[in-house]
UniProtKB/TrEMBL annotation:
Family: Belongs to the oxygen-dependent FAD-linked oxidoreductase family.
Residue span, FAD-binding PCMH-type domain: 22-187
Molecular function in Gene Ontology: FAD binding; oxidoreductase activity
Names of the cofactor(s): FAD
InterPro entries per UniProt: FAD-bd_PCMH (IPR016166), FAD-bd_PCMH-like_sf (IPR036318), FAD-bd_PCMH_sub1 (IPR016167), FAD-bd_PCMH_sub2 (IPR016169), FAD-linked_Oxidoreductase (IPR050416), Oxid_FAD_bind_N (IPR006094), Oxy_OxRdtase_FAD_BS (IPR006093)
Pfam families (UniProt xref): FAD_binding_4
Alphabetical keyword list: FAD, Flavoprotein, Oxidoreductase
Name of this chain's protein: FAD/FMN-containing dehydrogenase
Transmembrane segments: none
């Protein structure tokens, strides 16, 4: 275990994460290597009246801390039990490591668009992955959680425990997870990739994708992203400098070409990357940026996606919008709507989630917030909720909790929170 304070060598590197728009200036950072290190750090924080925050990769950093930061990036153990089809991972593991380890046994995890995201932060947020319509949330497949609660006790929680329910979706505020055990699925390859369409075709492609995705089988997870691509030589020539519509596909069936035929016919396709690919290459489907940057993002789940809403999306987040926005619409439904497994906070009645993500520039986060605000105001009549994983850079955790959890879940989370963290040393719920 390494303990670092401001000004010491290694402090800045240990604090740095993927999200760079949120100031993170802990009084002390504990670079934990074991669950015992985490126990010691939590007890030290309690003795010194320090607030506690946790960071694995910084992809989901919302508020920075001036208290004690537990950095879990060295807790990188991955064990696969092929017969039981489960994985057990340490708190600092990223999805890429699990994907590689599971693939050796013909298995795959319920990972998301980016292999760089941390398994624990993702799963505690619910975990909306590439096979979510077929298998549900990653949180639904968790079998056991090792967690150091704010009293400094290392506990293993399993189905039936209130803490188990709270952690699967409630994310922060209940302790530090040191290890997670979860189910894997027998998947080795996908029909996946994307179709890129030109700026002028955005409105019609959005309409075709909306209608097509409504009748898609559960084996298909799909999203459409409106992306303002810069005019840079490293981007492929057909899409360079264009505001493209990027349809993303992850399909578990064998008849992919047949299934996407209506999309390929929607408008001239600028670039087509659809093919059968090993699950180990699933990160290429969305090709999320790998480099740290400052960003702000929010989302709304919606019960419909009518033509008026699509027009509002193009107006507020398409070409010519005042702030460059990556706008992603994901089809929900399937197993996500059935939700046979219990856990905190997921809008299982929604048909789509609309997410907006923008870089925070020199003029600050308020410009981005204002632009996103106009978009989501236009969608408000059909909005049914908000999903925790896609809220980025908002500083008030209690406010975020109020916006993402249904009232009954929020009330239950707060009772559990008070029981385990009466001093509110961990982030508020
Ligand atoms: C590029 C990108 C792609 C993404 N793709 C998806 C996607 O496809 N599907 C999806 O559902 N989400 C996705 N997300 C959202 C992501 O799941 C959340 O931001 C998640 O919280 C990130 O977890 P992390 O550990 O990587 O990040 P961190 O910032 O390190 O952690 C995020 C938060 O999780 C909590 N946390 C982390 N580790 C622990 C722990 N050991 N114990 C207790 N609390 C902990 C803390 O509150 C922490 O602030 C994406 C985010 C980005 C930036």
């Amino acid at each position: 275990m390494n303990i670092l304070r401001p000004g010491q060598d290694g402090y800045a590197d240990e604090v740095a994460g993927f999200q760079t728009s949120v100031a993170n200036t802990p009084a002390v950072v504990v670079a934990a290597e074991t669950a015992e290190d985490v126990v010691a750090a939590v007890k030290y924080a309690a003795e010194h009246g320090l607030r506690v925050a946790v960071q694995a990769t910084g992809h989901g950093l919302t508020e920075g801390t001036d208290g004690l930061l537990i950095s879990t990036r060295r807790m990188t153990g991955v064990e696969i039990d092929a017969a039981a089809r489960t994985a057990r991972v340490g708190a600092g593991v990223r999805w890429g490591a699990v994907i590689e380890a599971a693939a050796k046994h013909g298995l795959a995890p319920l990972s998301g668009s980016s292999p760089d995201v941390g398994v624990v932060g993702y799963t505690l947020s619910g975990g909306f992955g590439l096979m979510a319509r077929r298998y549900g949330r990653a949180a639904d497949h968790v079998r056991a959680i090792d967690v150091v609660t704010p009293d400094g006790e290392l506990r293993t929680v399993t189905p039936g425990a209130d803490l188990f329910w709270a952690l699967r979706g409630g994310r922060a505020g209940f302790g530090v997870v040191t290890a997670l055990e979860f189910g894997l699925v027998p998947v080795t390859e996908l029909y996946g990739g994307g179709l890129y369409f030109d700026t002028a075709d955005l409105p019609s492609v959005l309409r075709v994708w909306r209608t097509w995705s409504m009748t898609a089988p559960d084996e298909l997870s799909t999203s459409i992203a409106l992306i303002p691509l810069p005019d840079l030589p490293m981007l492929p020539e057909p899409v360079r400098g264009k505001h493209v519509a990027h349809v993303r596909i992850a399909y578990l069936g064998q008849d992919g070409d047949e299934l996407v035929a209506p999309l390929r016919a929607a408008a001239p396709v600028l670039m087509d990357t659809l093919k059968r690919l090993p699950f180990t290459e699933s990160g290429s489907i969305a090709s999320d940026p790998p480099h740290p940057h400052p960003y702000h993002g929010t989302n709304a789940t919606v019960s419909a996606l009518n033509d008026g809403m699509l027009a509002a999306i193009v107006e507020h987040a398409g070409p010519g919008a005042p702030v460059d926005t990556v706008l992603i619409i994901d089809r929900l439904g399937g197993e996500l709507a059935r939700r046979r497994v219990d856990g905190a906070g997921w809008d299982s009645g929604a048909e789509f989630v609309v997410r907006a993500l923008s870089m925070v520039g020199d003029d600050g986060v308020e410009t981005v917030r204002g632009a996103h605000g106009k978009l989501f105001e236009a969608l408000a009549p059909w909005s049914t909720g908000r999903l925790l994983p896609f809220v980025y850079g908002e500083h008030d955790p209690a406010e975020v909790a109020e916006s993402v959890f249904p009232p009954a879940d929020l009330a239950r989370l707060r009772v559990i929170k008070h029981r385990y963290d009466p001093a509110s040393a961990f982030p508020a719920v």
